[in-house]
Amino acid sequence: MRIIRVDNYDEMSKKAADLVASQMILKHNSVLGLATGDTPIGMYKELIKLYNEKKIDFSDVRSFNLDEYYGISKENNQSYYYYMMNNLFNHVNMRKENINILDGKTDNVALECLNYEKRIKEVGGIDIQVLGIGVNGHIGFNEPNVNFESETHLVDLDQKTIESNSRFFKSIEEVPKSALSMGIKTIMQSKVIVLLANGEAKAEAIAKTVNGKICPEVQASILQLHNNVNIIVDKAAAKLLKSSDK
Ligand code: PGA
């Protein structure tokens, strides 16, 4: 694991955007694995800036998002489809046919998940996967105790995740109780992983990810076994790391 310590959210966002941008420059048709939530919003803003400065080009880029709420349509402003269009795709020259986001309204979950895995394999796998992390150590929507061997699948959301994500909804009752998510196996097959974390609320999850036992209770702990992981943490999220953690 490579720990990149930064002072604040803006620096984290810039650093993450630089990693993604360099991947795109080195391979014009890169396959990006993308995340949603509050954490990567600044990174997307930086990527849009780099695009406007003509430093990066999305015309041949393919993307796969980590997850989507189950039972929510694309048009719903809480869907991750809506988030991605709003925060990135509407502002860059990404081709619609190159955007892959799980369909939260699918009437055949098994087929939707199987096809997603198939499409990832068809394009040669994910070159760089961006991840946030949940307060409970989840990556994607792989909640504590999900089987490490899982590929894209339907998951029940953990109570902590429901509580944490209720800030985006009018009430906690409106938060979906399940989601479609790439599995740990899918994530681990990405060539490069960039995990972003900021704020004190993530400090414990980050400490367990870096120094804890590798166990399904802390899904991100499996990343200790990946050979190209970059963890970009601001001061608050790095609070429980040892100074010797590199
Ligand atoms: P956040 O979510 O970026 O909104 O904190 C991260 C996650 O739950 O993976």
TrEMBL record:
Its EC number is 3.5.99.6. It catalyses: alpha-D-glucosamine 6-phosphate + H2O = beta-D-fructose 6-phosphate + NH4(+). The active site is at D67, N136, H138, E143. Keywords: Carbohydrate metabolism, Hydrolase. Pfam families: Glucosamine_iso. Pathway: Amino-sugar metabolism; N-acetylneuraminate degradation; D-fructose 6-phosphate from N-acetylneuraminate: step 5/5. The keyword Repeat does not apply. Gene3D superfamilies: 3.40.50.1360. Signal peptide: none annotated. Transmembrane segments: none annotated. CDD domains: GlcN6P_deaminase. Belongs to the glucosamine/galactosamine-6-phosphate isomerase family. NagB subfamily. Catalyzes the reversible isomerization-deamination of glucosamine 6-phosphate (GlcN6P) to form fructose 6-phosphate (Fru6P) and ammonium ion. This is Glucosamine-6-phosphate deaminase.
